[in-house]
Amino acid sequence: MQNYIITIARGFGSGGKQIGLALSKRLGIPCYESQILSMASDLSGISKEKFNLVDEKLSGGALIKRLKAAPNTDHVLSPNERKFVSDENLFSIQTQVIKHLAETESCVIIGKCANYILRDRSNVISVYIEAPRAACVSTVMDKMGVTEEDAHSLISKTDKYRSDYFKYYTGGRNWTDPVLYDMTLNSDRVGWDKCVKVIESYLKIKFE
C-alpha cells in the first residue's frame, strides 16, 4: 500500500484527539497535531508562540464577515515581505508542512483544516468525530476538572473558533458538512475504541 493519511476533525470533547492517538498507535504510524506547529516554526524560523496564537482560530474575527473566497495559501511569503507573520502566511506554512507529510509518510493528522488541504489526494481518508453535547460536557469535566457551566462555555467557544477558522480558510465551507469527509462518527454512540476499529476497517476497504 502507498503511504496514506487519515485526517480527523473533531468537536471539542468528542474524543477525536484520543481516537486519533489510539488509531496511530494501532496502525503504527505517527499522529500529528501540535507537532505541526513546531514543524512549521522550524521550517520558517517564526516562533512557535505565533503559531499557537492562531492555532485553528482567527486573530481578527471581523475577517470572517468580509469573506468572499478562500485566501491563497499556496504561496509562502519570504522573511523580508511585510506579511511574513500574518495569519494567512502562518497558515500557508502549516499547509506546506501538511502537504509534505502527505507526500512522504503515513500518519494521522488532527485538525488544522487537513481534510480540506488534502481534499484532492487519493491517499487520504477524512473523518469527522462528534458526540452529543451531554457526552462532550462530561468528557471535558473529567479531563479538565472544570464545572459543568465552564465545560459548556469551553465547548461553545472552541467549536465556534474552529468553525470560523475552517470557514475562512476554505472559502466559506461548513466545518461539519458531512460531504467534506469520508465518514462522520458519533463517538458516544459508537464508542471510542470501536471508532478506531471502524476507521481501520474503512482504511482496508478503501485501499484494498
Describe the structure.
The chain has 208 residues and is an alpha/beta fold. The chain has one domain (5-206): 3-Layer(aba) Sandwich (Rossmann fold). Helices cover 50% and strands 11% of the residues. It is built from 9 helices and 5 strands. The protein has helices spanning 16-27, 35-44, 48-53, 87-104, 114-117, 133-144, 148-169, 187-190, 192-206, and strands at 5-10, 31-32, 107-110, 124-130, 183-186. It has a 5-stranded parallel β-sheet, with helices on both faces.
SSE blueprint and pairings:
Elements: E1 5-10, H1 16-27, E2 31-32, H2 35-44, H3 48-53, H4 87-104, E3 107-110, H5 114-117, E4 124-130, H6 133-144, H7 148-169, E5 183-186, H8 187-190, H9 192-206
Parallel strand pairs: 1-3, 1-4, 2-3, 4-5
**Number of DSSP helical runs:** 9
| SSE run | EHEHHHEHEHHEHH
Q: Which spans of ≥5 residues are poorly predicted at pLDDT below 50?
A: none
End-to-end distance: 8 Å
**Major sheet summary line:** 5 strands, parallel
Stated plainly, the CATH topology is called Rossmann fold
Query: So what's the CATH class?
Result: Alpha Beta
The CATH architecture category equals 3-Layer(aba) Sandwich
- Percent of residues in helical segments? 40-55%
In round numbers, the mean pLDDT is: 88
Shape label? globular
List the quaternary state of the chains: single chain
Number of strands: 5
In CATH, the homologous superfamily goes by the name P-loop containing nucleotide triphosphate hydrolases
Helix/strand/pairing category: alpha/beta
- The strand line-up of the biggest sheet is 2-3-1-4-5
